[in-house]
Structure formats: C-alpha cells, structure tokens
Amino acid sequence: MDLKDFLQQEDFFVKCQWGISLMNAKLQMINAELGMRCARKVIHSYSSRIKSYDSIAAKLRKKGIEESIRAMEEHVNDVVGVRAVCTYTDDLYQIGEMLCAQRDMRLVKRKDYIKNPKKSGYRSLHLIFQVPVSLQEEVRWMKIEVQLRTGAMDYWAGLDYQLQYKKENREAKNISRELKEYANAIEQIDSKVLELRKRIEAI
Description:
Shape: flat
Number of domains: 1
Strand order of the largest sheet: 1-2-5-4-3
CATH superfamily: Beta Polymerase, domain 2
Helix content: 40-55%
CATH class: Alpha Beta
CATH architecture: 2-Layer Sandwich
Largest sheet: 5 strands, mixed
Order of helices and strands: HHEHHEHEEEHH
Strand content: 15-25%
Number of helices: 7
Structural class: alpha+beta
Distance between the termini: 63 Å
C-alpha cells in the first residue's frame, strides 16, 4: 500500500483521533489542576490537526527521503498535532513539565523555539510524545506533537503560515521582514505582561 492510500484508511484516522483525544484529556486535566492552584484560567484554547498527504510528502522530499509509510513513521514527528494556547510564557513551561511527568507517555523530542526562535521569528514550545493507542485489543505507540504558545505567538504564527504560500511575491518578502520585527515586539510584550502579572500577584 502506498502512503497516500494508507492515509485515507479509516484505521489510520481512528488511531489519530484516539491519540488526539488522549492528549486533549491530559491537557484538560493539567489545566484544571493549574487553574485551582493559580486561581485563574491557564489554557484558553485547544486545537488539533492531522497532517495532509501533501504536507507529509513535501516534508519527506525536503529531507531527501523517498515517501513511504515507514519513512513517515520514522522521519515525520508531527503527523498528528495538538496545540494549547495560554496567556503567559511561564505557564507554557509548567504545562510542558507536567506533560513530561506523565508515566503513560514517552517524550521523544523537545524543541524550545521560545528561547531559540526560528530565523523567521517563530516562537513556540514543541514537545514530541509517543502515546499508547489501543485498537482491536492491540496497543500501538504513535507520535504526537504538542505545541504550546501564548496568544500573541499564536496569531503571529497564523500570519506566518499564510505567508508560506506566497513567499515568491515581492510584497510577501517585505511582509516577512516586518513580521520578524513584530515577533521581537511580541516577545517583549509577553515578557512585560508576565512581569505585570507577577507584580499584581505579589500585592
């Protein structure tokens, strides 16, 4: 079976949805615990997605790897993704630590694009986990990428994503430069908002 047909199988889709449900449940429990501890809402929104065939194939081509089911499983860590958006950067790291402490998941990779932003200015905390998915009395481990961002990081990333498909346009290049400047401004705003919250809590 080729990769495109595999991705259209109901079994694959159900497995992905199961993994998403499991990770969302983890995040919701963490949100409830932190909410009681901090007396405020910590996670403001959740979203998820399953990568399309075109995106997976493009990622494999970029890595110089011939597309196949095995290549996807070994070299594409973000076929399934879950995102949680918070207000404060320290909450992102707290949530990340609590996810890593879960005994029924395995941390595969951690990418801190908050402390080490991409060249474009993109900032987010990425955690790749393996989670157990039970199908027909069989347990399989699948990889899920968790992205943790502030609201400001999230709307910036949305604009950057839109721009990816128009980068050859001259105006797009100008916008890309401006976006990078705004990424730096957003970093300063996130830091200032966190500082103000801590000052308010200390009163």
